[in-house]
Amino acid sequence: MLYILYYTILGLLFACLASFFMVVGARTVQNQSFIMGRSHCDHCQRPIPPLALIPILGYLLSNGRCQSCQHSIPIKYPICEAYFAIFSLILFMTFSLSESVFYIIYFAILTIMAASDWSDQWIPDRFQVLLLLFVIGQFSLNPSGRILTHSLFAVGICLLFILLNFRFTNGIGGGDIKTITILALALGPYQTAWLLFVATSFILCHIIIDKYRGRPLAKGFPFLPYIFFAYPLIFYIL
Ligand SMILES: [Zn+2]
Q1: How far away, in angstroms, is 40 Cα from ligand 1 center?
Q2: Where are the alpha helices (DSSP H) in 123-173?
Q3: Distance, CA 117 to ligand 1 centroid (Å)?
């Protein structure tokens, strides 16, 4: 019984953190402070009532609409909050404490980056630097022979995507290439291959669903949200 209460509180904490990370990512690309200023409706700009700010539950209680203007709130918010909370909890329960902390921090940085990419199709360099510093920190704490393989692979994949970017001008963006290179350095060839495969499969599913619903094909997809969704799954595929 006590375990259920413990994991419920932990899950709620992860959902709150996800909500905060989404705010950090979205506000940073809009040059707004993520510490000062109340959360407001993107449509009418009025402050969101405290009850509606509760992760996941707030969305359900307000019927997915702003209480002031009744404009719909994007469903990506409760989905990302629930996704982050569930998979962080699973990572926490599956791996050792030190391993799970590392994986969850990666997941947190990816959540911030996904929110930025979603909001403005742009990922500020400071997040790439944060991710890189974290990867370097991880290798410093756990030095191993893998670093050479991972580094060579990261350089290779970076060059490959740069070449693809020259060939397909509307293809993958510079921010995506930097993020994938850093993730390749952290994860190595096998996990990165799976990460890209799962993420691109999600994009393909999105295109098929849009086509099925008769929606016009989007000119470009923000790639980081798909990396965010693919990231925790690779630990269970491999
Ligand atoms: Zn509103």
Answers
A1: 8
A2: 125-141, 146-167
A3: 23
Predicted TM-score (pTM) of the model is 0.89
Cα 158 to Cα 45, 79, 162, 173, 179, distances in angstroms: 40, 31, 6, 12, 10
Provide the residue-wise pLDDT of the chain in tens; the chain has 238 residues.
788 899 999 999 999 999 999 999 999 988 887 777 777 887 888 888 888 888 899 999 988 898 888 888 889 999 999 999 999 999 999 988 988 998 899 999 999 999 999 988 888 999 999 999 999 988 888 777 788 899 999 999 999 989 888 877 666 778 889 999 999 999 999 999 999 999 999 999 988 998 888 877 777 778 899 999 999 998 877 6
Q: Which residue has tokens 């707004």?
A: 32
* Contact call for residues 127 and 112 (beta carbons, < 8 A): yes
- Judged on CB neighbours under 10 Å (0-12, 13-18, 19+), 76 is middle
Interval between CA 84 and ligand 1 midpoint (Å) = 26
| CA 39–ligand 1 middle distance (angstroms) | 11
- Return d(Cα 49, Cα 81) in angstroms, integer: 18
